[in-house]
Amino acid sequence: MKKKVALAYSGGLDTSCIVPWLRENMDCEVVCVVGDVGQGADELNGVEKKALNSGASECHVVDLKNEFIEEFVFPTMITGAVYEGRYLLGTAIARPVLAKGQVQIAKKTGCTALSHGCTGKGNDQVRFESAYAALAPEMEVIAPWRHDAWNLSGRMAMLDYLAKRDIPTTASATKIYSRDRNLWHISHEGGAIEDPWNAPPEDVWMLTANPASAPDKPEDVTVTFKRGRPVAVNGHMLNGPDLVHRLNSIAGPHGVGRVDLVENRRVGMKSRGLYETPGGTVIVEALRAVEELVFDRETRHYREHLGLTFAELVYDGRWFTPLRECLWACADKMADRLDGEIVVRLFKGTATAVQRRSPHSLYSEKMVSFEGEEIYSQKDAGGFIKLLSLAERIRALKERGQAR
Asked: Residue 148's CB: how many other CB atoms inside 10 A?
């Protein structure tokens, strides 16, 4: 009896080769699983026909957009998770929901194995297989790029492999960049980008305008939050996917959301990636502005600490772990009072919060004003400072021999 394997399928060059490769080298029946996380019609149109033409017995396109944004992206943003200071985790956060959808189809169709098209050098193999381990530990994992029988080491070899089997592909030998796109962002790698001394080629960007040629007039956009979740743009209530799409269309023309980053991959090497996250950049800026009003000092600082750990867990593919769940429970509780409206000004590549209000704001104009002392007496600060600086005072006196 043939082994039945569910393949995380994109329709790109790698997975187009993997379908016949699994049949020929592993004697597998292949079920292709395409997770729709908002990568767009260019990638999804005709993907089922393409999978069947390459030898798959079935192809399932699963709509994951709402789950992706509402249950993976927004929680990650609420925790404040930003990897190495700048990366909003657009590729990393899509992997657990894609793997989850793949496992669900695998079980539904009677598959006993799972496969993916990730290379042996990247982070995604870790992310997919860690999710498989948590969701379907009983299933075999087949990673063709790490298999001894895999000898398709380059783009030309893969194109030749498909041509010999009369399998159609839209890929070409002239493709420059490797891209990953979803509703939250798009990433770019390869080509001239691999040399960190090269400035980003202007032809690489797809979602954002060149900030230098962006409009000379700033644009203000209002984002409304309920419990840390963005729920409206400019007063119009929207579900998660529609809200992100709307903000992408507003912020992109202003050049907002470009990141050029040399990052530390989980597997140990450095890589350079160019990321575009226009709508996400606006959401993060606005959410931090709500926090400024609502969180006390200790809560704000602990959320920042939590966000660093959460970012590493997401980046490393550790979504389905007890620690990630516990950290999210904490952040979700913190978000109970993160309600408010924030106006973000977009101008030539920047997104800056310029107006903020919240029904739970701890900001008191009367308290910080120099006028009047009904609530706070400036004289009270003297005792506070003496206690706060007591250790410094004792140390200085000790060093002078004035205290025992």
From this structure: 6
Active-site positions read 14, 95, 124, 178
Is residue 404 included in any domain, yes or no?
no
pLDDT digits (tens, 9 = 90+) for 242-283: 999 999 999 999 999 999 999 999 989 999 999 999 999 999
Low-confidence ranges of the chain (pLDDT < 50): none
Q: DSSP label at 174?
A: T
Give the chain's domain count: 3
Q: If you average pLDDT over every residue of the chain, what do you get?
A: 94
C-alpha distance across the termini of the chain, in Å: 85
* 143, part of any domain: yes
DSSP 68: I
Find, among 290, 242, 237, 258, the residue nearest to 70 by Cα. Answer: 242
Q: Is residue 170 part of a domain?
A: yes
**Six-digit token string for 184:** 């939250």
- In this prediction, residue 5 carries a pLDDT of 98
Residue 99: its pLDDT value, please? 98
- Nearest by Cα to 130 from 110, 116, 150, 144: 116
pLDDT at 89: 98
Looking at residue 25, what is its pLDDT? 93
Residue 225 phi/psi, 5° resolution?
-120, 145
Which residue(s) pair with 222 in the sheet?
A: 343
Question: What is the per-residue pLDDT for 225?
Answer: 98
Cβ count near 201 (within 10 Å): 14
Q: Are 233 and 343 in contact (CB under 8 A)?
A: no
Domain of residue 372: give its range. Answer: 365-399
Buried b (16+ CB within 10 A) or exposed e, 31-47: bbbbbbbbbeeebeeeb
